[in-house]
Amino acid sequence: MNCHEIRSMADAYVDRELKGLEHGRVENHVRQCPACQQWVRMVQRTRDTVRTKLDRGRAPDRLTERIRATLNDAPRGTFETKG
Amino acid sequence: MPSRPRRIPRQDEFEKVALPLMHDLYFAALGLARNARDAEDLVQEAYLKAFRSFRRFRPGTNFKAWIYRILVNSSIDFYRRRSRQPLISELTEEAPAPAGAPERHRLLDNMEALDAFVGDDVRRALDELPPAHRIVVLLADIEGFKYREIASILGIPIGTVMSRLHHARRQLRRALWDYARRQGYAAPPRKERKA
Questions:
Q1: Which of A2, A6, A8, A11 to mutate to test the interface with B (most CBs of B within 10 A)?
Q2: What structural domains does chain B harbor?
Q3: Is B119 in contact with A54 (Cβ distance < 8 A)?
């Protein structure tokens, strides 16, 4: 595997989504390649920035009542029964 | 094939599992709709559809992924009905890989710039992504879904999830970097190349 291939897999690697063998191959390369190490660190930090800094906020309070009202009004004959 | 109960689900049973997810679903809907009014309508519609087909949900499987799939499908229907923002239909279609120069630059040498970002900066950068890319970032990085769950929610192969996420994060880094430079969070690179 060359650096280009490793970098195209870096996202799946930091997400721990690669299968055992692939994960191992990327890990071995990254361990020996300072440039790819830095790349992986950047991918990880960007992901963590999104995870930690994005404010999820809350839905408006009225939404719960809107949903309940919609469910209350749902005609009971329209439920899907197909399995 | 195991038999499923045929009785009509009780509303309180549905609410018990579904309503705790409302804030998460609303947040995802904002990513799909990008305005609060549409996001509320989308969530409301998704809840109604989920309630109607609740008996098809198999207990023991992932309810959160199930209702997110309904939300995504609702958003596609929602905008198709309104005949606007066709971009939403791109959610399930192949998104183009971003054009531009290789990424040798920038955040690699200025990772500390990421520390300066606040939530609004990240939101702005996310909003710049095409919807098909934005939704995979939201599902993976915010909602914490595994790739196979995202594939099921969006109805696309896992390989497509992987490549979309790769391209999406690349675009996101670019957007964050551009923003960091404009805001003065990051020092200009030694040799700036136009991307």
A1: A11
A2: 11-86 (1.10.1740.10), 106-183 (1.10.10.10)
A3: yes
pLDDT in tens, B22-66: 999 999 998 888 688 999 999 999 999 999 999 888 888 899 999
Which 3-state string (H, E, C) describes chain B?
CCCCCCCCCCHHHHHHHHHHHHHHHHHHHHHHHCCHHHHHHHHHHHHHHHHHCHHHCCCCCCHHHHHHHHHHHHHHHHHHHHCCCHHHHHHHCCCCCCCCCCCCCHHHHCHHHHHHCCHHHHHHHHHCCCHHHHHHHHHHHHCCCCHHHHHHHHCCCHHHHHHHHHHHHHHHHHHHHHHHHHHCCCCCCCCCCCC
Of A45, A47, A67, the CB nearest to B111: A45
Q: Is B9 an interface residue toward A (CB < 8 Å)?
A: yes
* pLDDT computed for residue B88 by the predictor: 45
Confidence category of residue B187, pLDDT binned at 50, 70, 90: low
- B56/chain A closest Cα distance in angstroms: 6
Nearest CA in chain A to B13: A71
As for the ipTM of the complex, it is: 0.84
pLDDT of B87: 45
Tens digit of pLDDT for each residue in A26-47? 999 999 999 999 999 989 988 9
Q: Domain map of chain A by residue range?
A: 1-52
